[in-house]
Sequence to fold (475 residues):
Amino acid sequence: MSLNRRLFNKSLLLGSTLAFLPVRYAHAKTYLTIEQAQQLIWGATALTPAPLELSPVQQKAIEQASKVRVRNAKINAWKTADNGWFIVDQVIGKHENIDLAVGLTAEGKVNGIEIITYRETYGFEIQNPKWRMQFHGKNHTTPLKLDGNIINISGATLSCAHVTDGINRLTHTWNLVLKAL
Amino acid sequence: MTGKKRLARCRPLLGTYVDITLQGDFTNAQLIELSQLGFAAIEHIQQLMSFHSSKSELTHINRYAHLEPQLISALTFELLQQALQISELSQGLFDVTVGSALVQHRALPNHGFYEPKHSFGMNEYANWQAIQLQSDAIFFSQPLQIDLGGIAKGFAVDKAFDAIQHATDKLTSEANSSKTDINICINAGGDLRMSHWQQQTVGIRHPKQPQQLLPITLKNTALATSAGYFLADSRLTENAGIYSPKTHTPVRDNRSYSVFANNCMLADALTKVIALMENPAPLLTALNAEALII
Fold:
């Protein structure tokens, strides 16, 4: 077997392993329901569901304008009577996976951003038995329940750059698609 | 009686995720109103003090304050006054003028008016002593770049906390009721402050496995942590959680520095001091703070 062939097989194996590993969340926190986020951004203004799907051409145009990848063609959108928008979007960062709600005015200006759910993603590290071992045998009297006991975390600052990118993608989506609807 | 209601919100601010959680004997509308005041206080500080924004008051100061004194807002004045006090107490180990070196290391953006130096020599940079505060103005005795990244997040948390506390007191006095208690928790990307902190457990990230949380009982109302483990994916090249204002180099020791204090601004600033100071115990004691290095 040639060296090239072996390398090819190795990368194929690695690729397929990753594809089948379920993503687990080391920490997750739900902040708001969609209804609460709607109320925070639009108050008593009535919202009508207006879901849509971007065409491949639209996706490409948004990617070029925003320089952010469009992962999902489906847009979970609601509309006000005055052409305002409420969109529930998902952003995937290196460490985090976030559902967020964004309000856009009839002029395409962001009038509210609320994180709905925050999840920390550690796809395959958590599968590693060595890593999992560290959860056990810690000499703490309180058991470590990631989503129960500990709801506040202190640590190095995690950048929200991916959310900023996601909002940038949505304002370009408004400009290229929603504005004309 | 409305019963204890809880509201938890999280918004992207100060370059990170800011979480405000409120609980108390208030209506949902009141909790929303209180949380809005907290976020507004943080947004206001972000607008004034962002290094990244070309339109912030801080960027204006960095551009012009070495030419002639510049009028500044009361908030920026207050924070700079506190920052200079910490610089003095720490013999310059905390220094907001580290901005120049951070631009040089490309850990902060260059807005075009700052000339990068040719080398990282120790004597080429101004330090905190070049900052002069006079009543409502600021002047730099030599060109320099202030970065408030090591203190403004904590300060913003404190201001949001005070705004919510103050508005709560007003609400209860207007309602003519006995003072109603509100449980406030604000967490700006790891810089956190809690009103009812006694016996509360928080998780501190393990610096080598940040997804692993070490449970710690709070020792004061505020806790801040500095470390470098989330910076590898940042867009700006040279990164570390902490820079030494003495050597103008990043600290790369894979450790996590946490400080408990009676306000979040102080906790935030002291995380950098304990990373650099050989024996920080006397300073911590003098400031009624405690440290945890992992």
In short: The two ends of chain A are 58 Å apart (CA to CA). Chain A has a mean pLDDT of 78. The interface with chain B takes residues 26-27, 29, 31-32, 40, 94-95, 113-115, 118, 120, 122, 125-126, 131, 134-135, 138, 140, 142, 144, 146, 149-161, 163-164, 167 of chain A (CB under 8 Å). The beta strands of chain A are 25-30, 48-49, 52-53, 74-79, 85-92, 96-104, 110-121, 153-154.
